[in-house]
Structure formats: structure tokens, C-alpha cells
Amino acid sequence: MVTFDAGTTPVLLYDGECGFCAGSVQFVLGRESSAHRTQLRFAPLQGTFGTAALQAHPALAGVDSVVWYTPGAPGSERVLVRSAAALALLRHLGGVWRWLALLARLVPTPLLDAVYNQIARRRFELAAPACLLPTPDQRARFLS
User: Fold this and answer.
1) E strand map for 41-120
2) What separation in angstroms does the CA of 132 have from each of 5, 15, 55, 63, 127?
3) Domain that includes residue 104, residue range
4) Quick one: pLDDT at residue 101?
């Protein structure tokens, strides 16, 4: 089993080569409350952390999705993909976003995942390639 240090806070894994995904991370960074800013880290799927996380969780092989990774003891980590990861992210943001996540839970998961998959398939068309340019304070929350 591959080991890697996830610390104690959740990590949002995203496609580091996708402008839409970079924009989504910027969206999160711009909407987090100050109380939540230390409670989430970010890592590209193509980076060292992302690669190790994917290797440690073989069920994620071939997953083309945002991944919400909650660390725990080896074997007890929580890994969410597709709409479940997106809803975890909305809950993290709090406020109106948390309410939106609660309402979305009324929709069957297969339908939510179908919508998620449609957006994911078109993500390269939805936004031009873009680099994430976090501020110095934000940069500390990014894993390589």
C-alpha cells in the first residue's frame, strides 16, 4: 500500500490540467468563510499527493472526477467522487451553499452523477486552459 501524509484536514483533488477545474478551485477560495479557510487543502490529481492518493485507493483507477479525500487511519480514509465530492465541497462552503447541498440530497444520486458526468465531459470546452494563481496565503494550502 502506498503511504502519504494527508495531515488531518480534507483535501480536494482536482484536474490540474483543466481550466474549468482551476476556476472551480478559485470559486471555492473566493467563497470560503474565514472560519473555513484552514479546514481544506487542495491538490492536483497529477501531482505527488494526487498520484499517491489514487494509488492508495485502487477503486479510483480511471476516475475522471473531483475527489474529496478525508484523512483517517490507514484503511479508514473517506473518499468521495463525482456529485458526492461536489456536495461535500458545498457543505464545506457553508451558508447558502450548504442549503443547496442539503436540497440536492433530495435528488437521487444516479441523477446527480449523470448531471455531474455531463459537465465533466464538457469541462475542457467550458473554460479555456488556466493556471491557478493562489495568493501567498492560499499557496500554503496546496499540496504538490
Assistant:
1) 41-44, 67-70, 78-81
2) 23, 11, 25, 22, 13
3) 11-125
4) 96
With respect to residue 52, please indicate whether it lies within any of the assigned structural domains: yes
CB 53 within 8 A of CB 13: yes
Cβ count within 10 A of residue 18: 21
Q: Is 128 left (phi over 0), alpha (psi -120 to 50) or beta?
A: beta
Residue 114 falls inside a structural domain: yes
Q: Is residue 143 part of a domain?
A: no
Q: How many CA atoms lie within 13 A of 102 on its CB side?
A: 7
Contact between 81 and 60 under an 8 Å Cβ cutoff? The reply is yes
Q: Is the pTM of this model over 0.70?
A: yes
Structural domains counted in the chain: 1
Distance CA 22, CA 81 (A): 17
Residue-wise pLDDT for 42-81, tens only, equals 999 999 999 888 888 888 887 778 999 998 877 778 899 9
The ranges of the chain with pLDDT < 50 are 1-3
